[in-house]
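QA checklist item 7 of 12: single-chain prediction sanity check.
[x] sequence parsed
[x] length recorded as 201
[x] structure emitted
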Amino acid sequence: MLNEKKIIEFLDDLSAKTPTPGGGAMAGVCGAIAASLGIMVSKYSLKKKGLEDFQPIIEKSLENFLKCKERLIELAEEDMNAYQGIKDAFKSKDKEKINIAVRNGIETAYKIAKCGYEILNNSYNIAKYGNQNLLSDAIITGYYAWATLQSGLILVKDNIQYLSDEEYKKELIEDINEFTTETDGLVKKIRELFEEKNIKL
């Protein structure tokens, strides 16, 4: 179980010549790390003088970071199980089993991406309304969340080719395109927020 491992143990497992943990598990752990940093910034922003008007936003961000941290560790584990399911399905050569297993893998990866978005969105809130002494940490939270989001989407796109359900495939691609447009806009806002308060290099 990932939640019982030390970080060095996970890194050793990740670097081993084994199929899991792989990119999906890494994306989940990366997102959990992002959420953890966001939690720290949120805690330093709570009850801070001058931020009284923004306490509800900060409290909500903290709540969301805590949920995402826990959920992403679960999804990292689910991703490893999903990979094994896909591997077993392809060995069986049963088209229906393959479609079900691939769809499960896609949905797990997409959940990772959406958790990444949730962290990204809340990183913007704490960067804008939180403790400005920790602005860089809030921005870093956002960029790690972005990496999580993009990693999840890469896995989704990589597995789409194996789907036999054309209708589901079409709906998924449309949803991804809308999701990507929205997330690109949010990352731009975070970048601009940082540049407003720092020297643009």
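[x] summary fact logged: The CA atoms of residues 14 and 21 lie 5 Å apart.
[ ] second reviewer sign-off
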